[in-house]
Write a structure and sequence with these properties.
The chain is α+β, with helices and mostly antiparallel strands and about 325 residues long. The protein has 4 helices and 6 strands; from the N terminus they run H-E-E-E-E-E-E-H-H-H.
Length: about 325
């Protein structure tokens, strides 16, 4: 056997061993200990079978199927195989992502929450859409168009501001001209002369203010004892009021108790009066009848005082009747 044949045979054997090792490792890693899941995206640019599945940034599986979903043509169905034991929970979200800028697209799954329930095999992982490159290009184009209009507007406003700035500078140049500078110098010289002339008066005023301040300090020192006496007087008045407060409070309580008793007595009298109202009316009627009887008795005694002595009253005398057959005596002329 020639050397070239030996080298070729060695290369073939090495290639077979490498392929077998890769197949064995891949089969051990993904074939027997994986859990299927699925998710749905509106945009899955660059994802294909065999793309990585990331959980919190680490590789935990791969994409097995990428196809349009028959039930909703606007979504792409992705079937995933994830390592057994990966804590996929209901708070996880799947989205399109990459490990780095140069790497191929992958499906990135967030870690979710420890309190959320774990998803069962074959369940759907909630998805979150990412901005595609086309969308970004459209937004950038819109921003560029808006920026051009904004730049044109800013240029117009800058021209107006430049004109106003030129006007302001002209006004400042005019205000700081030679004539105005001379006037300002004259004002400053006059001010200096006035200060020099009035400095003596200012010194005298300052001395008077100091004297007045000293007199005020003396007055405050003299008034301080009076303030202390006033504080002592106020303290005595407060103590006197505190001493009298308790007896006054007791007297007020006794007065209140007396008034309550008086109210209770008045209520009792009212109750008794209401209960004996009928008896009082009957007594008054009896007194009225007795008074009428006494009045009749008094009138009878006045007309017949003998009724007190005689038992029987005498009969009334009859008035004599004139005889109608007798003529009256003739009148004498």
């Amino acid at each position: 056997m020639t050397t070239e044949a030996k080298v070729g045979l060695f290369v073939v054997i090495a290639a077979v061993l490498v392929i077998g090792t890769i197949y064995y490792v891949g089969n051990e890693q993904w074939g027997h200990h994986v859990v299927p899941y699925r998710t749905y995206l509106h945009y899955a640019g660059g994802v294909e079978p065999g793309s990585e599945v990331l959980y919190g940034g680490i590789t935990v599986g791969r994409v097995t199927v990428v196809r349009a979903w028959n039930e909703d043509p606007t979504e792409i169905e992705l079937l995933l195989e994830v390592k057994e034991g990966t804590p996929i929970n209901a708070s996880c979200t799947a989205k399109l992502g990459t490990v780095s800028l140069m790497a191929s697209p992958a499906i990135s799954i967030t870690t979710g929450s420890n309190k959320a329930a774990r998803l069962k095999p074959g369940a759907t992982i909630p998805s979150e859409e990412t901005v595609s490159i086309d969308d970004m290009a459209r937004k950038l184009a819109g921003i560029a168009d808006t920026a051009q209009g904004l730049i044109a507007q800013v240029q117009g406003e800058i021209k107006g501001i430049s004109g106003q700035a030129n006007t302001l500078l002209a006004n400042l140049n005019e205000a700081t001209g030679a004539a105005n500078r001379r006037q300002i110098a004259e004002i400053l010289s006059n001010t200096n002369a006035m200060i020099a002339e009035e400095s003596a008066k200012i010194d005298r005023i300052t001395d008077q203010v100091l004297t007045t301040t000293q007199d005020a300090d003396l007055a405050v020192k003299k008034v301080a004892p009076l303030v202390d006496h006033a504080d002592a007087t106020v303290g005595n008045v407060n103590s006197t009021i505190d001493q009298l407060r308790e007896p006054l409070h007791q007297d007020l309580l006794q007065m209140q108790s007396t008034m309550e008793q008086a109210r209770s007595l008045i209520a009792t009298i009212r109750t008794i009066a209401k209960g004996n109202d009928d008896n009082i009316h009957a007594t008054i009627e009896n007194l009225r009848a007795a008074t009428e009887d006494l009045a009749q008795l008094s009138d009878g005694l006045k007309d017949r005082p003998w009724s007190l002595v005689r038992i029987r009253q005498p009969k009334d005398r009859k008035v004599p009747e004139q005889n109608s057959s007798q003529h009256p005596p003739a009148s004498v002329h």
